Amino acid sequence: MMNRKFLGIGLAAVLLAGCGEHGGEAAAPGLSTPPSIVQVAEVSVQPLWDEEEVVGNVEAAQRAVLSAKVTGVIDAVKVAPGAPVKRGDILATIDAREIKARLDSAAAAQDQAQKDFGRIERLLQSGSSTRQEFDAATTRLRTADAAMVEARTMLQYTEITAPFDGVITRKLVEVGDLATPGKPLLEMENSSLLRFECEIPEALVDRVSMGAELPVTIDAAAAVLRGKVSEIAPSASAGSRTFLVKLDLPAAEKLRAGQFGRVRVPVRERPAVLVAEDAVVRRGQIESVFVVEDSAARLRLVKTGRKMNGSVEVLSGLSGGEKVVVKDAALLRDGVAVEVRP
């Protein structure tokens, strides 16, 4: 009895298995995978310049160190570092009591010289004075006028004014300090006019010309700017054998004087294989693209180089002219059927 029971269970299992296999065979011919819709772009070969990077700094195009022209005690400092100023603003003043006294003396001397000149002139017209006395009076009046102009000019020097619109960057004196001719008091710069300054090796300086535009990368400002060459030093530095080159920079958000940057100097031109950056699939350290061949996507391992304007240079794996998938390439697998649509 037991053996018959087991035999019945086995036959039922075989029949069920057979039905399952028969059902699978019937469904298989009806299964079909539609081709993936893809967009492609042709791999191009274009001329490309090899470049070398030279480091430098962003500097203000207008900088000034404001110094005293007269001796005196600092009477007031009206600005602090970071303060914006306009051309002609008074930034600091020097005690002018001594110069004012000199101005008063010059004014008195001028007044007396004018009176003497008028008196001698009248006497000369009446014949009561000589030509020599008139010439002497004229000389004294001219001397008094010159002394007056000098005193007024010296008085103007007691006010330190801004030579241009800009920002105060350093304050080197305090109220009560003694100012002497040539002593720096303040430093300022025009932060709206910035330029990039770098030392270019003598082997590369021939690749740079006045007015040329070069790409300048400023990491702190997250910006890549087109710098225009405005100055090239006519001689090299004896110690480093480099030439000082300055490039005018356009205005950019977060761009500040003192920031570090790099400029790319073109060296030589060569043909390069370029592909759209979206076509490259990166999985870890492996880079690949999908090339459409005979309505199928074929995986192609590549090695990339420089990136520029949405394209990337392919150093190996492509030769130019191939059709590569440029949208959702990461979703494909090797050999899958595809249909190209615009």
Give a verbal description of the structure.
This protein folds into 3 domains: 36-50 and 271-340, conserved putative lor/sdh protein from methanococcus maripaludis s2 fold (Beta Barrel), CATH 2.40.420; 52-61 and 190-267, Efflux pump adaptor protein, beta barrel domain (Elongation Factor Tu (Ef-tu), domain 3, Beta Barrel); 66-185, OB fold (Dihydrolipoamide Acetyltransferase, E2P) (Beta Barrel). It is built from 3 helices and 20 strands. The model is unreliable at 1-31 (pLDDT under 50). Helix 2 (97-126) packs antiparallel against helix 3. Strand 11 and strand 12 form a beta hairpin. The protein is an alpha+beta fold and 342 residues long. The strands form 4 sheets. Strands 3-10-13-12-11-14 form a 6-stranded antiparallel β-barrel.
